[in-house]
Specification:
This protein has a 4-stranded antiparallel β-sheet, covered by helices on one side. It has one domain (about 30-123). Helix content is about 40%, strand content about 20%. It contains 3 helices and 4 strands, in the order H-H-E-E-E-E-H. The protein is α+β, with helices and mostly antiparallel strands and about 120 residues long.
C-alpha cells in the first residue's frame, strides 16, 4: 500500500505560524478580579462593594477594594500582587482598624448605668 503525501495548504501553514507567534501573548495567565474578590471575602471582614485594578510602575498589580461596612476598613482594602501571573504573590496590605477608644467609652457607659441601678436598688 502506497502512502499518499498531501502538502499542507499555504493558508493552514500561515494560520499555524501566526498562532504560534500570537497565542502565547493571548493565553498568558493573569490574576483575575474574581480571585481578588474571593481573597477579600475569605480573609477580611470587608463587605465588598467594588474592586479597582491598577498597574504600578514597578510591575505587578495593585487592587483597591471598597467596603460597604466601613467599621473595620474605613478607607477600603489594598491588595498588592508582586507577580502578575500568580495569585499566590498577592498580599493584603491594609490592616484591620480597631477603635479601642469606643470600647473604653462603651465600658464607661455600662459602668455609669450599673452605678445608677445600684443606687435605685439601695433606696
Amino acid at each position: 500500500m502506497k502512502k499518499i503525501h498531501t502538502p499542507i495548504p499555504l493558508g493552514n501553514l500561515l494560520f499555524l505560524l501566526l498562532a504560534a507567534v500570537f497565542l502565547p501573548s493571548i493565553a498568558k495567565a493573569e490574576i483575575q478580579e474574581y480571585l481578588i474578590r474571593r481573597m477579600i471575602l475569605l480573609q477580611t471582614k470587608c463587605d465588598l462593594v467594588d474592586v479597582k485594578k491598577e498597574e504600578p510602575k514597578q510591575g505587578g498589580f495593585k487592587f483597591q477594594a471598597s467596603c460597604e461596612n466601613v467599621s473595620f476598613y474605613p478607607d477600603g482594602v489594598i491588595i498588592t500582587c508582586s507577580d502578575k501571573d500568580r495569585e499566590t504573590s498577592c498580599e493584603i496590605k491594609t490592616k484591620i482598624k480597631k477603635f479601642e477608644n469606643l470600647n473604653l467609652l462603651k465600658n464607661s457607659v455600662n459602668q455609669h448605668h450599673g452605678d445608677e441601678t445600684e443606687k435605685k436598688t439601695t433606696k
